[in-house]
Specification:
Elements (H helix, E strand, L loop, with lengths): L4 H12 L5 E5 L5 E6 L9 H7 L2 H7 L1 H14 L3 E8 L2 E7 L7 H6 L8 H15 L1 E8 L8 E7 L4 E6 L2 E11 L5 E5 L3 E5 L14 H24 L6 E4 L8 H15 L15 E4 L12 H13 L15 H35 L3 E6 L7 H16 L5 H7 L19 H7 L4 H7 L5 H4 L38 H35 L16 H23 L10 H17 L7 H18 L4 H10 L5 H26 L4 E5 L14 H7 L3 E2 L20 E5 L6
Antiparallel strand pairs: 1-2, 3-4, 3-13, 5-6, 5-10, 7-8, 8-9, 11-12, 14-15, 14-16
Length: 728
């Protein structure tokens, strides 16, 4: 039966409508009705027209990945607490939170966003509007509808109905906005009554924002077409298990029979309900195997691929969108931290917009809204790293105590405005090397007089070069591996922190051993014995038992950092952490042994033997001996600094050698710092002699007996490596 002309015209009009499409049908009395959403655009004509007619809300509602991304982000952004703070002096003090009614009119207003919405709904709506439309608009409702009244609530405006007009002389500022109402009228509000939230400011029209849906529109449209293709494949295809043909191969079937067979196929074979059923036809037919191809079905793979595109556009990990194909226990925590960092940045931006367009113009600049992320577990590791960074910067005089407290909204402390670096910090040394008098350097850094630090007198002298000139083809000498002279290398901050930890740890060990020696002397003399009776060899010098594990752990961390900085090439049989642990164990044994050239214990025991010998020869009292031990270099901060610096240099020298071997380097040469401090100006010193060797095999030792730096404590030399076969 032919369709009525008016029905066909209604269907054609429905196909060409630019608004949301619905299916049109005829009722029994000849009238028309619409029902259901045309989800896949069956009545929208060509694929191009369908793409043009899908709006952002269609994509957000119909694409599972986009819906999931928006839903996760809008719920996540409402989870952190929003805190209202008041500035009192230089500190910010908390007044209340958005979930606490009656604390402040501003918090009460934020909870009144559209009738029937909670404060959480309001915050979620901002994020949803930003992600779907690129922008979101709140209109202030002022007390008593007075132009200068405080906002008491807000109305959300649909951005699709709003036109924003810029100021004549500032096109990036809002003059006023108009909203088209359902009855055809318009409502106008001034720019001061608008709060405009934008996801990314559109560079073409800066009064509006850009939505991430724009970046994935092509991908999502492709997925819709893939779904439509698959739907039609199932509903209109004939995926039979067998096809029957004439057995003789030459017989013909008349048109009437063909039509009858086609009708039977439509009624009994077509569609997913009839798929893969056996059917029997007459006229001597035989089966022919015709397996259905699945190549067209691979079009649906666009759906899985689009998840990654959606995750990228919405700054989320695929794991958050429940794509678990690459999920592991290790990357799940990292993905959560990155996703919550996105939320933190977005909420901070939203609160900045509220401060800029609501808090400061209507309630005063002494108030602000701030996000509190203390209850978000995924962000707490960042807080720990921030605390460690703050400590390092504070100890090195980069920031003062009150600067950190002001940032965190805390009251200042008396005397906290002057940077107070720790007593072992290299800031003093940096100023002295720059030419400052040591006493002035200490004063500038707010430290006590020089006797507190124990620094030796320093004199800045003219530089001269006692070392032999390098070959003409030699490159410029590399910077020393000493921490203070490599501030711009990538691994310098990590090694700088490692040196501070080493100095602190060795300072504690030396003080503990000094106290053990003092207690031993006290024990002896309390029984009436003289200084002459003190036996150094009888003291407990087993530092291995007391400190080996701690020293090995510290050196392993340092060496792992060095290997990473030197680009050590890891293999399944030789991993960097194994090399670091092996080096740390061997080096710790040397440092804590009773004998050996690098033994800290041996040096300390010899110094105590000499000091007690002097005490016996000079008839010192016990008090004089104990004071001399306290003042000796062996237990001073200078020695702990020397040990730390030497161990950093030793690890760098050994690590560079190990890394060079994994990279195929087979030659090396020694470089000095080329100033008068090298070998104390002795032209025959070990460092200058090693530099004279030039390029030698990596397997050889330099003529000072060393394989690599350092040649002595506080050595500032370096060793360069190369591959001989690559040289001209």
């Amino acid at each position: 039966m032919a369709l009525p002309a008016d029905f066909r015209s209604a269907v054609n009009r429905a196909k060409n409508r630019s608004t949301k499409q619905r299916i049109v049908s005829s009722t029994g009395d000849g009238s028309f009705q619409t029902f259901g959403d045309d989800l896949l655009g069956q009545t929208r004509g060509t694929a191009l027209n369908r793409r043009k007619q899908r709006n952002n809300h269609d994509i957000a509602a119909l694409n599972a990945s986009v819906f999931s991304a928006i839903r996760w982000r809008e719920q996540a952004i409402a989870r952190p607490a929003v805190v209202l703070e008041q500035r009192i002096g230089r500190a910010w003090t908390e007044l209340g939170r958005t979930d606490e009614p009656g604390i402040h009119p501003l918090l009460d207003a934020i909870r009144s966003v559209n009738a029937g919405l909670t404060a959480r709904h309001g915050m979620m709506g901002i994020e949803r509007g930003k992600l779907t439309n690129g922008s979101h608009i709140w209109v202030k409702v002022r007390a008593g509808n007075r132009p200068n009244g405080e906002p008491v609530s807000f109305i959300v405006w649909d951005t699709s109905r709003v036109t924003i007009y810029p100021k004549a002389n500032a096109w990036w500022e809002v003059s006023h906005a108009k909203r088209r109402n359902d009855d055809g009228s318009t409502t106008t509000v001034s720019g001061e009554d608008l709060i405009l939230f934008r996801h990314i400011v559109d560079p073409a029209t800066p009064l509006w924002g850009m939505t991430p849906i724009s970046a994935i529109r092509m991908d999502t449209d492709t997925v819709f077409e893939a779904q439509r293709h698959n739907l039609r494949y199932f509903d209109n295809g004939i995926p039979v298990g067998q096809v029957l043909v004439p057995s003789d191969g030459d017989s013909e079937i008349d048109p009437v029979e063909i039509n009858r067979m086609l009708e039977q196929m439509r009624t009994e074979w077509q569609g997913t309900d009839n798929a893969h059923r056996w059917h029997i036809l007459e006229r001597g037919l035989k089966p022919l195997l015709t397996p259905a191809t699945m190549s067209d079905m691979q079009f649906a793979e666009q759906m899985a691929w689009s998840v990654e595109q959606v995750a990228r556009a919405f700054e989320l990990s695929p794991l958050t969108l429940k794509d678990l194909r690459r999920a592991t226990y290790s990357n799940a925590d990292q993905a959560a931290a990155e996703d919550w960092t996105t939320i933190q940045n977005q909420l901070d931006n939203t609160l900045d917009e509220l401060n800029e367009f609501l808090v400061w113009p209507d309630f005063g600049t002494d108030l602000r809204l701030r996000g509190d992320y203390a209850d978000i577990p995924a962000l707490q590791s960042d807080s720990k790293e921030q605390a460690e960074t703050d400590k390092i910067e504070h100890d090195f005089g980069k920031v003062s105590t009150n600067e950190l407290r002001e940032r965190d909204g805390l009251e200042p402390l008396p005397g906290g405005d002057i940077p107070q670096p720790g007593p072992r910090v290299e800031a003093v040394g940096a100023l002295v090397r720059a030419g400052f008098d040591p006493a002035e350097a200490l004063l500038a850094l707010g430290l006590p007089p020089i006797t507190h630090i124990g620094l030796p007198p320093v004199t800045v002298q003219a530089v001269r070069d006692p070392s032999p000139p390098p070959p003409e083809d030699a490159p410029a000498p590399p910077r020393s591996r000493a921490i203070e002279e490599t501030p711009n290398t990538e691994d310098a901050p990590k090694l700088l922190s490692a040196e501070v930890r080493l100095r602190t740890a060795w300072g504690k060990r030396l003080r503990a051993e000094m106290q053990r020696i003092l207690d031993s002397i006290t024990d002896e003399t309390e029984r009436g014995r003289a200084v002459a009776d003190v036996d150094v060899e009888a003291m407990n010098w087993d530092w291995q038992d007391r400190y080996f594990d701690d020293v090995a752990s510290e050196l392993s961390q340092v060496h792992a950092t060095v290997l990473a900085g030197e680009s050590f090439l890891t293999t399944p049989l030789l991993e960097a952490h194994q090399v670091a642990n092996s080096y740390a164990a061997a080096r710790s044994a040397e440092l804590l042994s009773l004998e050996g050239s690098v033994s800290v214990v041996r040096t300390t025991r010899l110094a105590m033997r000499r000091l007690i010998g002097t005490a016996m020869e000079s008839n010192w009292t016990v008090r004089q001996l104990k004071n001399a031990i306290r003042d000796s270099f062996e237990f001073s901060p200078s020695r702990s600094e020397m040990i730390a610096r030497t161990e950093i240099a030793a690890s760098q020298g050994k690590g560079a050698n190990q890394a060079a071997r994994t990279q195929g380097r087979d030659e090396k040469r020694w470089f000095t710092a080329r100033d008068e401090r090298v070998d104390g100006g002795d032209a025959s010193g070990p460092c200058i002699e090693a530099q004279r060797d030039g390029w030698i095999s990596i397997e050889q030792s330099f003529n000072n007996g060393r394989d690599t730096v350092p040649a002595h404590p506080r050595c500032r030399c370096d060793v360069e490596y190369r591959t001989s076969r690559l040289q001209p």
